[in-house]
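Exercise 7.
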Amino acid sequence: MNQNDENIKYFASDVDSSFVKIIVCAVVFHFLVVAACIAFHYVNFKSEPEPIPVFEMVQVAQPRPPAPPKTQPPPPKPPEPKPKEPPKPKVNKELPPDIKPEPKEKPEEVHEDTPPEPEPPPEEPVDDFPVDDMDLPTAVEAPSLDPVGSVYMDPLMQVYLEQLKKIIMSNFKPPKDLKVDRSAKTTVQFSVDRFGGITGVILKRSSGNKAWDHLSVRAIQISKVPELPPNYRAPSLVLNFNFTPN
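Solution. The predicted structure, written as tokens, is:
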């Protein structure tokens, strides 16, 4: 057996021994690992919670206040004495003496006097001149324009009526040879709407002269008047125009 064979044997024996050591170390290491896992499984690392104090509610009975002492009822008041009635005055039951009627006086005799003489009536004043000789002029009524019913105559309405009167009189032109009594009077009634239109022209009073009445009605029918004043709220205004000779 040579040197090489010995070396090989020696090397093989070393390999076997080291292999065995490795196996043994591995087994021991695994055993330790398993033991550590088992130990960790049974060991509790969580800290126990602190105990919570429990308070018990205890109701303490309060002492009752002492009862008030019983008061005795006051003694009853003595009854008040009744007021004494005043003594009744004595009434004299005797009858009063008879009253004799006074004697009536005799009426004085009235002497009938003679009636007084009536006073003479006052003398009427004697004019210095006879009335029949006076030739006084009769009153003449001027033409007029009057509203029918109650209308508030403010300054605007007064100006409007004066304007209507001038327009109508400018259209009333009776001929000069027309004979009419000076006391004649013709009344014509008509309506003026909001826009100045004339409607409802009627003869309310005749003067007795047909020509004069016809001219009066025609003067109103042909007139063109302005609109009603803005402060007059009614839809129309009814008027009476009196035509008289002047």
